[in-house]
C-alpha cells in the first residue's frame, strides 16, 4: 500500500481528514449560480457576439435552467449545448448555400460532408438538453420523479400518523436497558 496508512481510530475520534460534510453549503460556497446573476453570464467565446439567434437562445436557456438551480457544472453543460446548436446551425447554413450534394475529386456527386457534422451536433445538443431537463421528455420524466417522491413522502406521513394513533399493546411492558420488563 502506498502513501499514508489509514488510522483505524480516526472514525471513532471523528478526526478523519477525508470526511465529507453532510450539511448543504450556501450558494456562494457551493458553486450555485443565483438567478439574478444568471442574466449576466456572457455568451460562450466559440459563438460570435453578433449572432442574434444564438444570443436569444442563450438568454432563454439560461433563464430556463436558472429557475431550478444552476450549478457551475450545469453552466459548462449549457455552454456545450449552445455551442453544439451553433455548429449545427452553421453546418445547415453551409449545406443550404452549397446544396445537399457536392462533387468529389472525380466529379461524381456525393452527400455534402457537413450533413454528418450537422447531424452529430444536433444529436449532441439533444443529449445535453435532455441532461439539463430542457426537452419535453426530460421535463415529463423529472415531473414524474417529483410526483413519485411526493407520493412516497405522503405514504410515509400516513404510516407515521397511523402508528402514532394506534393503541399500545396491553401487555407490552417497558424496555429497560434492552430487556422487556412486564408491568
Assembly status:
single chain
| Whole-angstrom Rg | 29 Å
> Strand percentage, roughly?
5-15%
Number of strands: 6
| Structural class based on helices, strands and sheet pairing | mainly alpha
Number of helices: 7
Largest beta sheet, briefly? 2 strands, antiparallel
Tell me the strand order in the biggest sheet.
Answer: 1-2
Inertia-based shape = elongated
Task: Report helical residue fraction.
Answer: 55-70%
Q: Quick check: average pLDDT? A: 76
Description:
The structure is a single chain. By secondary structure, this protein is mainly alpha-helical. It contains seven helices and six strands, in the order H-H-E-H-H-E-H-E-E-H-H-E-E. The strands form three sheets. A two-stranded antiparallel sheet has the order 1-2. Strands 3-4 form a two-stranded antiparallel sheet. The protein has a two-stranded antiparallel ribbon with strand order 5-6. A hairpin with a 2-residue loop joins strand 5 (174-176) and strand 6 (179-181). The longest helix has 30 residues, at 136-165.
Amino acid at each position: 500500500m502506498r502513501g499514508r496508512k489509514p488510522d483505524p481510530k480516526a472514525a471513532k475520534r471523528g478526526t478523519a481528514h477525508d470526511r465529507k460534510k453532510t450539511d448543504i453549503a450556501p450558494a456562494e460556497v457551493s458553486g450555485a449560480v443565483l438567478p439574478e446573476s444568471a442574466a449576466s453570464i456572457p455568451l460562450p467565446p466559440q459563438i460570435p457576439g453578433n449572432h442574434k439567434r444564438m444570443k436569444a437562445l442563450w438568454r432563454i436557456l439560461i433563464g430556463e435552467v436558472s429557475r431550478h438551480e444552476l450549478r457551475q457544472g450545469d453552466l459548462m453543460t449549457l455552454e456545450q449545448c449552445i455551442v453544439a446548436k451553433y455548429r449545427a446551425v452553421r453546418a445547415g447554413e453551409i449545406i443550404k448555400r452549397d446544396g445537399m450534394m457536392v462533387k468529389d475529386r472525380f466529379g461524381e456527386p456525393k452527400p455534402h460532408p457537413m450533413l454528418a457534422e450537422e447531424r452529430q451536433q444536433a444529436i449532441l445538443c439533444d443529449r445535453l438538453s435532455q441532461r439539463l431537463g430542457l426537452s419535453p421528455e426530460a421535463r415529463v420524466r423529472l415531473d414524474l420523479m417529483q410526483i413519485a417522491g411526493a407520493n412516497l413522502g405522503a405514504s410515509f406521513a400516513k404510516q407515521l400518523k397511523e402508528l402514532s394513533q394506534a393503541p399500545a399493546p396491553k401487555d407490552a411492558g417497558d424496555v429497560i436497558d434492552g430487556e422487556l420488563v412486564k408491568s
